[in-house]
Amino acid sequence: MAYYTNYGALQREMTTYYQRTGRRLQFPEAVEAMYQRGELSDLPPAGEENRLVAGNMEPEEFSRLVDSFRFQVEPGAALREQVNEDDIIPLLRDVFIIRHPRFTRPYLHMHNYVEINYVAEGSCQLHFEQEVRTLRSGELCIIAPRSNHDIEVPDDSTVYSVMFRRSAFETSFFALLLHDDSLSRFFRSALRDDSAPDYLVLKAENPRWIQTILQNAMVECYKSDSFSDMCCVSYINILFACLLRSAGGALPAPGEKNSAFTSVLHYIRQNYRTLTLAELAERFHYSKPHLCTLMKQNTGMRFTELVRHIRLSHAVEYLQNTNRSIGEIADAVGYHSADHFSRVFRSAYGISPQEYRRKNSVSGPNGS
Predict the structure, then answer these.
(1) In whole angstroms, what is the distance from residue 240 CA to residue 234 CA?
(2) Minimal CA–CA distance to 90: which of 224, 286, 279?
């Protein structure tokens, strides 16, 4: 049987327990206590969330709205030191956003997805490996996969946590990886090598605008219509664009091999349909071996892998949002044969383009 609660009820449980005992709970412990007292519901959301619009709410007003958001919980779940994306990100969603509970007990854990914590009001404590750092209002902390961490939020603060499937960076957010600034370099490094714990803290230049973006994105996370994930991804792309704009003048990160490589990446993005390695090397006056070395250092991929990623990310957009035939999509992204495109797509995603469209299309299938 599935069980549900809302943010307001969960926060009351954690707050009253702390006030009564002076001790803090972790999320699964609070859920179990509510379950034992029969305070969880077996009724799923009725769809009223589909009509919600956050707009530009004041923080207090939005917080009251979030209190009403219902979500599924799992009584009896154990605390996990390793959390997988399927444990917390709903099926068929690339992004999921929560309001981090207050009065949680720090419990270091790691996960295989990327997480951003945004301090909307007040402050919070970031526990990271052996470090404790205070994050203040308007700061974003991006945490790489496989990093031991936790967030501790006091009673007068609000923190939103944004979680991304790794596969989303190959499709919905792939363009982010092609820029040359501290943010894009961090993501390339984190996704290329998740053996080294890392985090990046950025200060929002316009905190109210960032909060407005996240409020609208979070509302989409709790809708159930076929457009909600696409809308949420669009809001987060706006968020990344704002952060990229702010980080545009940032100095190269320590150890970055070639910060001028951004021009090469942009050229590939604009000409990927027909571009060859020889043409790229000639245009930028590199030898092909040296260009391959730079490609691997800066993206973690070979030229052919990078081009394939870009082609397939555009193909996924066509499959989800248009009624173009498979042959038309193959031609649009640079494959001369629909059969060849289908083989490459199946190798990358485990299903055919037609099957992907049936499962994920917003516009509806149109055959092959």
Answers:
(1) 10
(2) 224
> In angstroms, rounded to a whole number, what is the distance separating the alpha carbons of residues 365 and 311?
20
Model confidence pLDDT, tens digit, residues 22-43: 999 999 999 999 999 999 999 8
In 3-state terms, what secondary structure has residue 4?
A: strand
pTM above 0.85, yes or no: no
| 341 in Cβ contact with 330 (< 8 Å) | yes
Instruction: Give, for 110, the enclosing helix (H) or strand (E).
Output: strand 110-111
348 has pLDDT over 70: yes
pLDDT (tens digit per residue) in 147-173:
999 999 998 899 999 999 988 887 788
| Location of each CATH 1.10.10.60 domain in the chain | 259-360
- Tell me: pLDDT of 136 over 80: yes
92 CB-contact burial (10 Å; exposed 0-12 / middle 13-18 / buried 19+): exposed
> Which superfamily, per CATH, for 259-360?
Homeodomain-like (1.10.10.60)
Q: What is the mean pLDDT of residues 291-318?
A: 87
Q: How far apart are CA 73 and CA 3, in angstroms?
A: 6
- Distance CA(241)–CA(210), nearest Å, equals 11
- CATH 2.60.120.280 residue ranges for the chain: 3-247
| Residue length of the chain | 368
Identify the CATH assignment for 3-247 out of 1.20.1250.20, 2.60.40.1930, 2.60.120.280, 1.10.10.10.
2.60.120.280
Between CA 202 and CA 153 the distance in angstroms is 18
Three-state secondary structure call for residue 269:
helix
